Amino acid sequence: MENIIKDIDIISAEEAQACDYKTTEDENTGKSKKLYIESYGCQMNFSDSEIVASIMKENGFDTTSDFEQADVIFLNTCSIREKAELTVRKRLSQFNAIKRNKPEMTIGVLGCMAERLKEKLLEEEQIVDVVVGPDAYRDLPNLVATAEDGNKGVNTFLSREETYADISPVRLNSNGVSAFISIMRGCDNMCSFCVVPFTRGRERSRDPHSIVREAQDLFDKGFKEVTLLGQNVDSYKWSPEENNKARLNKKEGEVTEVVNFANLLEMVALISPQLRVRFSTSHPKDITDEVLYTMKKYDNICKYIHLPVQSGNSRILELMNRTYDREWYLERVAKIREILGEECGISSDMIAGFCTETEEEHQETLTMMDIVKYDFSYMFYYSERPGTLAAKKYKDDIPLDVKKRRLNEIIDKQNKLSEERNKLDIGKVQEILIEGESKRSNEQLKGRNSANKVVIIDKGNFKKGDYVTVKITDCTPATLFGEIVS
Questions:
Q1: 56: nearest Cα among 141, 166, 145
Q2: Is the distance from CB of 217 to CB of 252 less than 8 angstroms?
Q3: What DSSP character marks residue 151?
Q4: What is the DSSP letter of 206?
Q5: pTM for the full model?
Q6: Phi, psi of 443 (to 5 degrees)
Q7: Are 365 and 380 spatial neighbours (Cβ–Cβ below 8 Å)?
């Protein structure tokens, strides 16, 4: 059996290595039904696709890497950037061309784009058979059956409870070393540029004991690293009586126990010193000193924080409804450096050309980068998303050529900072976790250090999943090179 998930923005072809699972046979025909999934955008979508694969596997579907052989094609979509939606539409055109010669094929759109564009995709353009939002994946087998009977299947209901805590994800494209664990769903932040609160609903946290069980099971199967995922992991908050943060905050004196993100980090870290723990994403307004001290306490909690700033200017941050200003963000960075040291990796997201942004305000983003010295960043120019607060309240008034020029300045700045930060590692001894072969040579291996930087070493007698002590000898802006310390 082949398992593959195409992930356009996160996982490279080198990292996406297929894993074998037992073929599931269709009870009626004896033939396995074939499912093909593509995932776009963030790590949360990748994790969701693993949940979808598990649900479908339990209902008679095997996964395939060949979409032309598929009985069902799912596109797990993202609406955060216009580029992702355009890519999905292009793929839908390709799949519908195949469907013309294979009318029994079912095509479904899942996730954020499904929630936002369900009527357009189903009724106006009629290019999909199934539309399912992020909280309705359990209904997929029924909706596929509905589509197979000639009707459209749609469920975009947003749940206040669903966390999929009881579902053991099928590990698609697994390298057998690293895995994602979803710890919460939804988002209560109302950033004006973002569609997530409208497409994924309110925050609710998953039972921590189910998270620990999943991490323990992965470790028992040989995995050496887990990444705890959420739209805003620092906002994780759970009690036996309530998993919805907003409601939990109102009844805190009435519950028997509260587990916050720092508590959860410690619970997972205690599984084994040989299990690395990462997490993503942190919101600057919510990351606490308690989390930072927990990271410091355990060597196996990686010293890396993705802390999106979006803009270095306080007025723009207010328009974005980020709920912090430049000074607050810099104070949090200073605290990270104080508690975890200069070697802690910090990355960011940045948006160039947000509504009304002036040249002076753009320059403040560049000076923010100089102060923080990010190890790497995800950088974009502003793309207005229909339905967001920004689309309703502000005019997208920065010309495209100005957006692109500002973005290029941010990219150039980040490349210089990445090289500067990497040069600081030369001569240092670090422990890396081997993830597989280097894409440039099968005589070299690729690993990652605690700060989430890629390190290339000669293969020697090492293999995937080994922890290796190396001395960093050289670097590029994107990569470190090391030699084995005997």
A1: 141
A2: no
A3: S
A4: P
A5: 0.84
A6: -95, 0
A7: no
Distance CA 345, CA 372 (A): 11
- pLDDT 10s digits, 267-283: 999 999 999 999 999 99
Cβ atoms 169, 84 nearer than 8 A? no
Q: How far from each other are the two terminal CA atoms of the chain, in whole angstroms?
A: 40
Closest to 322 (Cα-Cα) out of 392, 232, 244, 203: 232
How far apart, in whole angstroms, are the C-alpha atoms of residue 385 and residue 194? 7
- Rounded Cα gap, residues 378 and 10, in angstroms: 11
C-beta of residue 417 within 8 angstroms of C-beta of residue 410: no
Q: Which of 35, 26, 77, 33 is nearest to 53 (CA)?
A: 35
Mean local confidence (pLDDT), 24-36? 58
Whether residue 375 has pLDDT greater than 90: yes
Q: Are 436 and 454 in contact (CB under 8 A)?
A: no
Residues whose CB falls within 8 Å of the CB of residue 100, separated by 6 or more in sequence, listed in order: none
Q: 166-205 burial string, b = 16+ CB within 10 Å, else e?
A: ebebbbbbbbbbbbbbbbbbbbbbebbbbbbbbbbbbbbb
Backbone angles phi, psi at 76, to 5 degrees: -90, 110
Max intra-chain CA distance, the chain: 66
Query: What are the C-alpha distances in Å from 373 to residues 17, 34, 343?
Result: 33, 47, 11
Question: Which structure tokens are listed for 170?
Answer: 């099928």
